[in-house]
């Protein structure tokens, strides 16, 4: 009885984990919403927005060669999962005065997928970061 219960419990955990797993391919598709202003990868350049290589762990407003708003430079934020999640839902709400004009992404799974996609890119733009 205990063995069957343990197997059932393990199955439920695995099913829940699979349903909540991050999907890099879906994150890449979601990144299409960002491409008008941001780039990632080894050939990425600052455009309307800064490059997003090596985003997680980086202090806000610090990409060389990009002209950030004072609000972004002085936000004191360091990008991690929680900060990015709050920001991408409502950029102007998280950093009032930011130049980023984007309505935001509200869907939690889409944010997780986008996060997984962005986390692939190290500061040098190579995948595996």
From TrEMBL:
Residues 22-122 form the Cytochrome c domain. Pfam families: Cytochrom_C. The keyword Heme applies. The keyword Metal-binding applies. Keywords: Electron transport, Heme, Iron, Metal-binding, Signal, Transport. Residues 1-21 form the signal peptide. GO terms for molecular function: electron transfer activity; heme binding; metal ion binding. This is Cytochrome C. It comes from Tardiphaga robiniae.
């Amino acid at each position: 009885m205990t063995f069957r219960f343990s197997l059932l419990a393990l199955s439920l955990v695995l099913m829940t984990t699979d349903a909540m797993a991050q999907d890099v391919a879906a994150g890449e598709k979601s990144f299409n919403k960002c491409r008008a202003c941001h780039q990632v990868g080894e050939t990425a350049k600052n455009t309307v927005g800064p490059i997003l290589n090596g985003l997680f762990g980086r202090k806000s407003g610090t990409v060389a060669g990009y002209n950030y708003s004072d609000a972004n430079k002085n936000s004191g934020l360091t990008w991690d999962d929680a900060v990015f999640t709050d920001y991408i839902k409502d950029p102007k709400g998280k950093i009032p005065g930011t130049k980023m004009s984007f309505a935001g992404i509200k869907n939690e799974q889409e944010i997780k997928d986008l996060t997984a996609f962005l986390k692939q890119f190290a500061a040098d733009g190579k995948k595996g970061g």
